[in-house]
Amino acid sequence: MKIGIIGSMQFTDKMIEVREKLRVFGHDAFIADLHKTMVGKTDYEIEKIKLHQKYNMDAIREFWNMMQGADAVLVLNYDKNGIKNYVGGNTLMEIGFAHVLNQKIFMLNSIPEMSYCKTEIKAVKPIILNGDFSKIK
């Protein structure tokens, strides 16, 4: 299965680890190419890089283009900023893109209790993995 990995870019190092795990399971997993400049950086540095990429490098459209032909996305919704299972605005857009493209939506952890996105995420009926990558089929 061809799977795009999405989530906060503060999780870049984890995205790389998960991509390798998915490949072991036989999946063709990918992350946005722009992640390369974020490896090993602090959250502050990643935030600056991320904003530059969004404003000057059309990062949102780049991942949209990469999603074409994929079968699914995997949302890495780890805890962030004191929010359990965090999903940010850009990730919410990518979840929407996946839904419109009729792709499966997998979430590593349960849907967050975030008022701005909880009902929208529920509406696309994601498959919650609870950390178990073997559930991706």
Write the layout of secondary structure elements.
Layout: E1 2-6, H1 12-24, E2 28-30, H2 43-56, H3 59-67, E3 72-75, H4 89-100, E4 104-107, H5 118-123, E5 127-128
Parallel strand pairs: 1-2, 1-3, 3-4, 4-5
Helix pairs in contact: 3-4
Written as H for each helix and E for each strand, in order along the chain, the element string is EHEHHEHEHE
CATH architecture level-2 label: 3-Layer(aba) Sandwich
Quick one: CATH class? Alpha Beta
Beta-strand percentage range: 5-15%
* CATH fold topology: Rossmann fold
Number of strands: 5
User: What is the residue-mean pLDDT, rounded to a whole number?
Assistant: 93
- How far apart are the termini? 8 Å
Low-confidence stretches: none
> Whole-number radius of gyration?
14 Å
Main β sheet profile: 5 strands, parallel
Shape: globular
Question: So how many helices?
Answer: 5
Structure description:
- The chain is of the alpha/beta class and 137 residues long.
- It has a single domain, classed as Rossmann fold, CATH 3.40.50.
- It is 39% helix and 13% strand.
- The mean pLDDT is 93.
Key phrases:
5 helices, five-stranded parallel β-sheet, 137 residues, Rossmann fold
Briefly, what is this?
The protein has 137 residues and is an alpha/beta fold.
